[in-house]
Predict the structure of 4Fe-4S dicluster domain-containing protein.
Amino acid sequence: MIFIDSSKCTGCGQCTRVCPFTVLRLNQEGKAENTGKKCIACMHCAAICPAEAITYDSRPAVAEKTQPLPEDCSTTVKQLIYQRRSYRRFLKKKVPGDILRAALDAAENAPSAKNEHPVRWIILESEEIRQCIMDWILEYCRENQVSMELISEYANGNNPVMGENAVIIIGICRRNSINPAQDTAIALTSAELLLQAEGIGTCWGGYLTRFLNLIPECRMVLEIPEGYEVYGTLLAGYPDRQNYRYLPARKKAEIKII
Ligand SMILES: Cc1cc2nc3c(=O)[nH]c(=O)nc-3n(C[C@H](O)[C@H](O)[C@H](O)COP(=O)(O)O)c2cc1C
Ligand code: SF4
Ligand code: SF4
């Protein structure tokens, strides 16, 4: 629960203006107070408070101090967004665990419906388990006559499901989370940009996400708990080729202004 130290509060009211659910208000003494309404623990009030008057009972309400962004930051972000590409073939070189952790820690900073942050992560490194999963997927396709292109691609040495030598980041959420699909997508997008900024190639695993949910053996080997579902997967690794020389042509955004 949010606690306001009234001896520190100057009554500037900034916390009340950033609170998304009017949990905070200024009282008759001109001090901020907690109304007791449902709080989503977004910590915006503590992050903006100039008097460091706000704490949260069981965990710290703020992390590091924000730093002014460097002047060329918008250029860098724009470059990163435009130059991000999907990579599918990787070197047999392990992506360091601290880089993966840093990307997923940063992903916790992404927007999340009601600040729920429902995504839990599984990092699949084991070559043996990846191969088992791939075999089950091919068997599933053959038996159910679905995504038959995967069978011929795989026979030709191309794997659109798992790429080549990828470490696989798997995002799972409880099915009854508020907005699991979008929360996972935004978190993975943030992680992807951070990884690509570190020189790690990435590719979304749409096929993989679908089949992990469809095939019980996959769920079992990944120890996905009851009530959870895979909402996104990202293949990652050191790309086996140089950076692209050009940006690929893309359609222009369709926009209607009303
Ligand atoms: C939700 C989603 C699912 C995707 N699934 C796959 C996939 O299963 N296999 C694959 O090779 N690429 C997959 N991709 C990558 C797209 O093919 C790729 O983003 C698109 O071709 C554009 O290329 P770019 O990312 O380099 O701009 C997926 C992308 C998204 C956003
Ligand atoms: S932001 Fe801090 S100082 Fe300002 S009203 Fe809220 S608690 Fe008080
Ligand atoms: S655009 Fe080129 S790289 Fe992309 S699918 Fe077609 S042939 Fe392959």
Summary: Residues 4, 9-15, 32, 48-51, 53-54 surround iron/sulfur cluster (ligand 2) (CB under 6 Å).
